[in-house]
Amino acid sequence: MIILGIDPGSRKAGYALISVEGKKINYLTSGVLKYDQVEEFIERLGIIYKSVEHILQNHNPTEIAIESLIYVKSIEALSKLAQARGAMIAAMSKSHVGKIHEYAPNLIKSSVTGYGHASKEAVDKALGMMFGKISFKTADESDALAIAVCHALNRSMKIKLSQVKPLKTLGKAI
C-alpha cells in the first residue's frame, strides 16, 4: 500500500509518500509544491488542484492523509487555507473517494513522537529515527511525512471504528 501525506497550504504545500508492507513503513519520496509564483490567490486554486492531480497520476497512492484545519491568527489566512484544502480534496475526490483521511495536528504529533504538543524538532528527530537522515527542503515536507506516518499507524483503528454499529436506545440510533 502507498500512502500520500499532504501538509496543505495556500502558498506552498508539503507532500510525502510512504509504502506500508505489513508492519514495515518505507519512505519513498517527498517534496514541496509551490504556488506563490501566482500573486492572485483566486488564480492559485486551479494550480493547487492541478498539482495534486499531477502527484496522484504520477504516484498512484492507495490512500491519502491530509492535515485538518489548524488554528491561525487571522480569518483571512484561515479562509485561504480552507479554500486551498478544498481544491486539494476536490482533486483527490476524483479518484480516491472513501480513501481520503484527515488528522488533527496533535494526533499527528502524538502518533509520531508520543506527545501531542511536540515541537517540529522533536517530530523531525522521530522521523529521523524511523527513516534515517532525510534532507527536507522545508518543514512542510517533513510535516507531510509525519501525516503519512500518522495514517499508517492509525488506519487500522479507523477501519475498526467504521465497522462499529451505532448504539440503539429506545429504537433510535445515538
Helical fraction: 40-55%
- Low-pLDDT regions: none
Rg from Cα:
17 Å
The CATH superfamily label reads Ribonuclease H-like superfamily/Ribonuclease H
Q: What coarse outline follows from CA principal-axis ratios?
A: globular
> Class by helix and strand content?
alpha/beta
Mean pLDDT: 90
Number of strands: 7
- Number of helix segments? 5
Instruction: Measure the end-to-end span.
Output: 34 Å
What is the CATH architecture term?
Answer: 2-Layer Sandwich
Q: Could you name the CATH class?
A: Alpha Beta
CATH topology: Nucleotidyltransferase, domain 5
Strand content: 15-25%
- Which strand order do you get reading across the main beta sheet? 3-2-1-4-5
Overview features:
alpha/beta; globular; 5 helices; 174 residues; Nucleotidyltransferase, domain 5; 5-stranded mixed β-sheet
Write up what this structure looks like.
This protein is α/β, with parallel strands linked by helices. The chain has one domain (2-173): 2-Layer Sandwich (Nucleotidyltransferase, domain 5). Helix content is 48%, strand content 23%. A hairpin with a 2-residue loop joins strand 6 (168-169) and strand 7 (172-173).
